[in-house]
Specification:
The chain is mostly helical. Among the domains are: about 55-140, 434 Repressor (Amino-terminal Domain); about 170-280, Orthogonal Bundle (Arc Repressor Mutant, subunit A); about 285-320. It contains 13 helices and two strands. Strand 1 and strand 2 (about 235-240) form a beta hairpin. Helix 6 (about 125-140) packs antiparallel against helix 7 (about 145-165) and helix 7 (about 145-165) packs antiparallel against helix 12 (about 255-275). It starts with about 25 loop residues before the first helix and ends in a 25-residue tail after the last helix.
């Protein structure tokens, strides 16, 4: 059973104070010259304030990303002669309509694949960012929940790969987090009558995979010290848990957590269409809550999860399980608050 939590990273910045000029000057003219000279010198020493450019990786709404990029350029790229405008963006994207960006931001138009490429060029995205932007647009424009989840999973994979390639994620951190298959194989050590032959494991897997993927994941679990190979007196081999898969989930990179959780949630979507109602339990409740009620429900869900996990872990110490199951608990907002409204 996989459960990870993450907290957003916090950042802080310190501003450098500007030195003040001396107050002992011989005359008004000298005072003015000295003050100007000192101020100019001080200004030259103070580094310019860093302008935060909207980062593609921070967004799950491509229209909001476009809106923020446009606002940023209008604020920082306008001159006394000409302001940055929608028509300037259209020209960079080689689009005839001067207000096309405005229509996209407002949700009145969608982007075709050709337009995605043009917008990426006008946004000055790096070549490595194009795939991410494309996935973000496809996710934002998809209307069917299953299709949206597919694009969201692709987006999580792309961002995790980019973070790894850029060095933001270390190879050690990347290898430390098992895929959904790793969690399943890890749990199968508690399942009865399982032969850990890769072909047999593949046959038992209900989600889409391959014998080669199973074999590779088993090698990684053993190499990382998550599973250990046991050899019986008869010469037969079996696998057992060597340690918890994740000792300190709060230390894991956010992108890796999102990637893993997206994979596990997607397994639930597959089960919804693959498995009969007798083999699964799916339920949903959509209801308005106060912030205090939300915190209470979240607390109760966490306590329930911990109790179930503890009870089943004790049961597995006494006897093996029959199958491996995936339990996903989700609680999330689907509307925003209305500020300043009447009760």
């Amino acid at each position: 059973m996989a459960y990870t939590e993450s907290t957003p990273e916090s950042t802080s910045a310190a501003a450098s104070p500007i030195p003040t000029a001396s107050q002992s000057q011989p005359s008004t003219a000298a005072t003015s010259l000295a003050t100007l000279s000192t101020a100019a010198s001080a200004a030259a020493k103070v580094p310019p304030m860093k302008v935060e450019v909207p980062q593609l990786s921070d967004y799950t709404d491509f229209r909001q990303f476009l809106k923020d990029v446009y606002a940023h350029r209008r604020a920082h790229e306008s001159t006394g002669v000409r302001s940055y405008s929608y028509s300037a963006f259209s020209a960079a994207a080689d689009i005839k309509s001067p207000n096309y960006l405005k229509l996209i931001i407002e949700g009145r138009r969608n982007l075709s694949d050709d337009m995605i490429a043009r917008f990426a060029r006008a946004l000055r995205l790096q070549k490595s960012e194009y795939e991410e932007f494309e996935a973000l647009v496809h996710y934002g424009q998809a209307t069917e929940p299953i299709e949206r989840n597919q694009y969201l999973k692709s987006l999580a994979d792309i961002r995790a790969r980019r973070a790894f390639a850029s060095g933001e994620l270390s190879p050690q951190a990347w290898e430390k987090v098992p895929s959904w298959m790793g969690w399943v194989l890890y749990a199968m050590t508690d399942q009865k009558n399982v032969s850990f032959d890769p072909d047999e494991l593949y046959r038992l897997m209900r989600a889409k995979t391959s014998p080669e993927d199973v074999r590779g994941e088993m090698k990684r679990l053993v190499a990382n010290g998550d599973l250990k190979l046991d050899v019986c007196d008869s010469g037969l081999t079996s696998y057992s848990k060597a340690r918890d898969l994740i000792d300190t989930p709060q230390e894991l990179p956010v992108e890796m957590i999102r990637k893993l959780q997206a994979e596990l949630i997607y397994l639930g979507i597959e089960s919804l269409f693959r498995d009969s109602p007798k083999e699964r339990e799916f339920g949903a409740m959509t209801i308005a809550m106060t912030q205090a009620e939300f915190e209470q429900v979240r607390f109760e869900l966490r306590q329930t999860r911990k109790r179930i996990q503890k009870d089943l872990k004790m049961n597995r110490e006494a006897a093996k399980g029959e199958r491996v199951y995936q339990l996903n608990i989700q609680l999330f907002p689907v509307t925003d608050k209305v500020e300043g409204g009447q009760a």
